[in-house]
């Protein structure tokens, strides 16, 4: 091992597990990291500075023709990812938590890895209630749910173990493929006000796209579905009436 596992590196490992792709081009190590165009502020203000700090680089983010924002760079320092257990090439089915993080029993490393994974590959959404509830709960998307989905069974199982150590209640389930070209997917879910609040208190988020949903929910008690990050910013800044979106 050529680098100490610091909290910052643990978060980078979570980011890479979610959004990263590692290549070995005849001994030259290339890292590709990218998210949606909406996540430009997350990359510019958190991901890129974090990589520059940890690896002593001067990266900048850019838009790519395939509709992503991030960076591609060649640097043999990134061999550390392979040493930590991340494969070269396609990783979706076999991606896992580095053993040195998982076996450390270090809760801060757990927190940082999970934050990086959630900010890149997780989702925070809100549901309506069905049945004998107050009209507000039936009409508004008020019930919070965090989930992380992967086709790597080991990743989801071990995320669940980490959450248990952090005393955050979760459950997992698998979903069989509906089409011949799909694979079984695995999901870890944290649901309900108390559990989601505990996640945000202990793990939190540095991704404004996801954080904006949480902030709207905290302010209004619900968060409309299918809104863009720009619209959510307008809601939070008082430029857009939330009730015009979710009557």
Question: Secondary structure elements and their pairing?
Answer:
Blueprint lengths: L6 H13 E6 L2 E9 L3 H16 L6 E2 L4 E7 L4 H5 L15 H4 L4 H15 E6 L7 H5 L3 E8 L2 H13 L5 E5 L9 E7 L1 H10 L5 H13 L8 H8 L11
Given the C-alpha coordinates, what overall shape results?
Answer: globular
Mean pLDDT: 94
Strand content: 15-25%
Number of helices: 10
Order of helices and strands: HEEHEEHHHEHEHEEHHH
CATH fold topology of the largest domain: Endonuclease I-creI
**Strand tally:** 8
Supply the CATH architecture of the largest domain.
Roll
Give a quick summary of the entry:
The chain is built from 10 helices and 8 strands. With 247 residues, it is an alpha+beta fold.
Structural description of this entry:
- By secondary structure, this protein is of the alpha+beta class.
- It folds into two domains: 86 residues, Roll (Endonuclease I-creI), CATH 3.10.28.10; 125 residues, Homing endonucleases (Endonuclease I-creI, Roll).
- Helices cover 41% and strands 20% of the residues.
- The strands form two sheets. The protein has a four-stranded antiparallel β-sheet with strand order 1-2-4-3. Strands 5-6-8-7 form a four-stranded antiparallel β-sheet.
- Helix 1 packs across helix 2, helix 1 runs parallel beside helix 5 and helix 9 packs across helix 10.
- It is globular.
- The mean pLDDT is 94.
